[in-house]
Design goal:
The protein has 14 helices and 17 strands. It is of the alpha+beta class. A five-stranded antiparallel β-sheet has the order 2-1-5-4-3. A five-stranded antiparallel β-sheet has the order 7-6-10-9-8, with helices on both faces.
Length: about 600
Amino acid sequence: MIHKLWVRITFSFLLLMSSLLLLSGFFLAEIMKNTYYDLKKNQLSQTASLVLKSIEMNGAQTQAELQNTITELSTTINPRLTMINRDGTVLADSEDDPRKMENHINRPEVQQVIKDHKKSGLSIRYSGTLGYSMMYVTIPINQDGEVAGVMRASLMLINIEHAIRKLWLSLALVLFTALLLTGLIGMRLAKGISGPVEEMIMVSEKLKEKDYTARVKTEPKGELGLLANAINVLASSLKNQMEKIQENEQRLSGVLTNMMSGVLLVNTEGRILLGNRAMGHMLGEAPDSFTGKLHMEVGRNVDLSALIELCLKTGKEIRDEVHLFHPKERILDAHLAPYVGESGEVKGIIAVLHDVTDIRRLEKMRSEFVANVSHELKTPITSVKGFAETLLDGAMEDEELCRSFLTIIYDESDRLHRLIKDILYLSSIEHHRIPLTIENVNLTQAVYGTADTVKEGAAKKNIDMTFPEKKDVWIEGERDRIQQIILNLLSNAISYTPEGGEISVTITEQENEVKLRISDTGIGIAQKELPRIFERFYRVDKARSRNSGGTGLGLAIVKHLVDSHHGTINVESMEGEGTTFIVTLPKKQEQEI
């Protein structure tokens, strides 16, 4: 991958080194070139001085003599020699006929000595005639304290250019070798640095993607080693923290999910952020479906929405009861409180709703129970008290009237005794103070045995009773409780069946359970009364029930006796046509530990 860190580091390093090497090469080459030129200039200057001294020693005066002297000297000297007078006329030249040569007064090296009065002149220029560059060095010819002309020595630069070209090639080779070596070294260094860095970047990316098991496995030295160790410590710390957060979230989720109370979290805009399963049951919607909605859009309850708005507005805790009618009627104890952020600002509210429908119903039943008990006890006590006062006022003198009153007092006290006995028995069953004694019970035999105790009452009303086939049907249970179930249901059937009616008892045996049906052709029960017939002291026809000697607790006792056997009891009835009680009992009882 071309964008890897080590490639970028190596490329930058090579770019820097190549720039430095090139600049160094140009600088060195220029220095060497200038040094070489200075050396040649000095050499030409010395040559010109020597030639000038030789001419002066030979005493040459005419142009022909000068030309001969220059020609002789040029045989032993490589540079070209030219003698020029003050007006630019070439007096002698070692390689050409001076008479044919043009005036040299405009030559730069001549101008520098004659006009600029320099001790020497230098000019490097290309010669179109020769086809290569030449170096010209001039020195003055002094005569009587004045410059009478110049002595010029020139040298072809073709050899110098070849030498400089070789120097460039050598320098380029050295620079390339140095660049190659520094590149390899830079690559090694870059990989040594970038390898751990790239691994750290990869680990950081994995941590960002919530892979908290990622670690830096290389062990670099120095600051990179400290950084790698810091990243590993950070990853380990993040892993531990995320595990704790997830564990806390699971705990919180488990608590919220399994809470029987409804929990609702609403932000300051009135939108629902969170709701648990119990709240979903209360509002009639799945928690996921109402998350993000406005609270007034969910549940369609004005009272609850008003409490939420009030809590959001005031920022104070509120506790009140809310009556829900959708999806079914409920009474809820609502506790609302604001929740605040770290800086103390209100960020929303938390609403906790407790379903107190059953509690209120039980309170109502308890209140009704107390009223019913008081009413039931008041009637016999009033009768006993009234007739006793009558006897004390003189009715005892009339033997027949006294006997009649005493009979009424006895019947009322007996009724009072039965009422108290039933209340105590029902209380004992409800509080499981009487344990179930499991034994094998022949249900058919129990039906026939119980029927013998009620046959006389049925015969008085001319009620026809039919019983199941005498076939052994065995179940596990307590014989006395099962017989009491049958007795109470048969007694009710006889009490509420008019003369000439019919009562039938059937037993249906199934694989794991037995159904006992007791049907009559009595007055029946209205459909609206059916859900309440198993409540204590609840009577469909209170006047007839009291006249029949009932306490109003018989069906409540039957219901608890059936429940103690882990069974069920159902009722089917049509007003004016009759009633059927269906008792379903398991064949085997589970052993309670």
